[in-house]
Design brief:
A six-stranded mixed β-sheet has the order 3-2-1-4-5-6, with helices on both faces. The model has no long low-confidence stretch (mean pLDDT about 90). It folds into two domains: about 70 residues, lambda repressor-like DNA-binding domains (434 Repressor (Amino-terminal Domain)), CATH 1.10.260.40; about 140 residues, Endonuclease Chain A (Endonuclease, Chain A), CATH 3.30.870. It is of the alpha/beta class and about 280 residues long. About 25% of the residues are buried. Helix 1 packs antiparallel against helix 5, helix 7 runs antiparallel to helix 8 and helix 10 packs antiparallel against helix 12.
Length: about 280
């Protein structure tokens, strides 16, 4: 794609490339000179400038440093990354980072907030093999999970309530060592003073109030919002009339689920079984 064919309004990726090129040209740097400053090859820079290659967080930060500081390109990069996420999820992540209480229910896989890097990488690479995402998107998906986890380490710490469908624990992901480490991570999570971890067993059957994953956030002002996903989109709900019934159903789920002590015992049993 040459510069005349690149439409900055066509996508956040194209806008990033056009901005990178115009900023370079304003300083009268050739691509080779700019590449040396950035620590990348001129071929790589050319591919990003023309929208043929996705930028990464590292490249965006290198660009901000090369152009004299600030976070203009890092912010532009986040728009690129969010463009590949489900509708509503970027907004949800922003609220999650500020929530006083987080209640989540997950089916099939360990939720991102509790994933080890290795577990997250296996899931991301599986999506690459299915050609659902690119290698660059896989890398950024794992990075985003780490960033979300980092936001939990704040003062005051949020209360985090997690209910996992039993399938989350019994579905093997990656090699045994990956699953072992992930089960250890769950046990460590359960020991934290601001967390509760429970399992919704298979035999709960029809008493399970949710068929799909759901998260309920309590914000610092005590307002509520919920987030749920289907395969095609995510939905962020802020209207309390709709969120309160979800919160009530979540409390019912907790009451029917195994206690934290029983959950940790199950994790320990499964951990021994994977050796």
């Amino acid at each position: 794609m040459n510069r005349k064919e690149l439409d900055p309004d066509s996508s956040p990726q194209a806008a990033f490339g056009a901005r990178l090129r115009s900023s370079r040209e304003e300083r009268e740097w050739t691509q080779d000179e700019f590449a040396d400053r950035m620590g990348y090859s001129s071929t790589h820079i050319s591919a990003v400038e023309t929208g043929r290659k996705l930028p990464t967080l590292r490249l965006a930060r290198s660009a901000d440093n090369a152009f004299g500081g600030g976070d203009r390109f890092e912010r532009a990069f986040r728009k690129v990354r969010h463009a590949g996420l489900l509708e509503g999820f970027p907004q949800f992540v922003e609220h999650e980072a500020q929530a006083a209480e987080i209640r989540l229910y997950e089916v099939g896989v360990i939720p991102g907030l509790l994933q080890t890097p290795e577990y997250a990488a296996v899931l991301a690479q599986s999506a690459v093999k299915r050609r659902a995402i690119t290698d660059e998107q896989a890398e950024e998906r794992v990075t985003l999970i780490a960033e979300r986890q980092a936001t939990l380490d704040r003062t005051p710490s949020p209360l985090v309530f997690v209910v996992l469908d039993e399938s989350c624990l019994r579905r093997p992901i990656g090699e045994p060592a990956v699953m072992n480490a992930q089960l250890d991570r769950l046990a460590e999570f359960a020991e934290l003073p601001n967390t509760v971890l429970q399992v919704a067993p298979f035999d709960m059957g029809a008493r399970r109030p949710f068929d799909l994953p759901v998260t309920v956030l309590t914000l610092p002002d005590r307002s509520l919002m919920s987030y749920a996903e289907s395969a095609q989109r995510g939905h962020l709900e802020r209207e309390s009339t709709f969120v309160l019934p979800i919160l009530t159903a979540y409390h019912q789920l907790q009451a029917e689920s195994r206690s934290q002590a029983e959950t940790v015992a199950m994790i320990s049993t499964l951990r021994k079984g994977t050796q």
